[in-house]
Amino acid sequence: MEILEIMMNNFGKFNNQSMSFHPGINIIYGGNETGKTTMGAFVKGMFFGIDKMRGRGANKDEYSLRQPWENGSFFSGTIRFKSGGKIFRLDRNFDRNQKSASLVCETDGEELDTERGDLENLLEGMDETAFENTVFISGHSGETTQALGDCVRNYMINTNNTASGQIDVSAALEELKEERKKLEREKKEKMAEKIERLQEISMKMEYTHQEIDEMIREEQKYRELLEQFPADMPDAGPDQFYEEFDSAEELTYGSGIWKAGKIAMAVLAFVGVCMGLLMTVWEARAAAAAIILAACFGVRFFSERDMQRKEYLREMKMAHREKAVRAEYERQRRRLQQQRDELPKRQRILMNIEWAVSARKEKNRYLEQLQREYKREQEGKEDIRDLEEKISAIYLAIDTLKEVSGEMYSEYARRLNGSISEILSFITDGKYTGVSLDEEFQIRIHTSRKVLSIWQVSRGTMEQIYFAIRMACLDLIDAGNSMPLILDDAFLTYDDTRLERTLKWLHTSGHQVLLFTCHKREQEIMQKIYG
Question: pTM higher than 0.70 for the full model?
Fold first, then answer.
């Protein structure tokens, strides 16, 4: 590819300015703040566009830096370039509200479609990342990044890919890693949910156990209370009153004095009769008659007393019977009233016992259900196992992709490292003849004495190593297309000798070079070399 002309209609400080280029090395000289960096950014922006960032970085992004100083709403440009023997014209509007791109083949008048990838085809698949890490070199960012390694790996994978379509290894790895993180987060969340669920069920089981124990205690308490309220009151009849009557009767009888008196008077009357019949003396008969008379009076006295005693006993017995009847009636009344008063309490106690038994049975059923659910939660790991299988598959895919890219890198490593070493050896006039990159794109510099890391050489040598790596990777990625090199003060740390050798290498590389510089030594060296 060869850039023929750029027309900066309205871009940064430039307004309707154009510049033409020729094959080989083009030196664009200018002092500080003359727009050299802006011109390099214009070329990159024409090929890949400039997007407006969002958020805090929006005020310092490339879009804001390259917005026109005047007439900011008209933000556009044109570039003409040659590719495959044909000349193409690319017009682009950078304004974020009117973004557009138009690609026309001036050779045959064909209009191409940038939305369908026609521009990418002309660039031979080189994307913005590969462009920034190979052909676009700035004195402020000569160091390569991990992105260059990803570009090389993508090239290696796609070169050996017999299927249609391009494979972005780094993007595939990132996508796999993101999916792995997503699945691991999901697994962690599910594990946390399962643990939380088990803890919740366990707490419910413990609480249910406590409720069952409490219901057992309540039932026992109500049963003990029920014993104080029997269904039938004990039958305490009027026997106690009869016992009182019998005791009173015995006390009334005393020692039998009234019976003894009657018997004694009867005996005395019998003696008087015998004396009257047996004795003939008048005086004796008179005495016998007196005894009989006295005995009669005594019998009458004791008979009256006995009758009074019997009447008293009858009255007393009647009184006791009446008292017993009244007491029985009162007892029966109190008993009925007590039963009426205590029946609701007993019924309430029975109801409480019935509720406690029913609730305990229900809680036992609920506890059994919780135990079954807890067991299912412990054993139910199908969803976790599915996630673990997916995560294992992703780990396997990542390892396989890394292994494949590593194996392919090994195939290209010798060629790549040989190309880097050849370029660096030419630039340093044979001082550094061996440079290698490992699979992680870590740089090792081989000397006759020891192996050095990139940080053990001078800044100028470091920049030259990065330059050699960029050119070798470009040769690998862009074989045959010869993308133009855009160098913006890329040789600030080079001494004159190594700069001269670098310019000689560029002259023979076959690339068109747009060399933006604020020094005149590049021009002087080129004039010295080629006259």
Answer: no
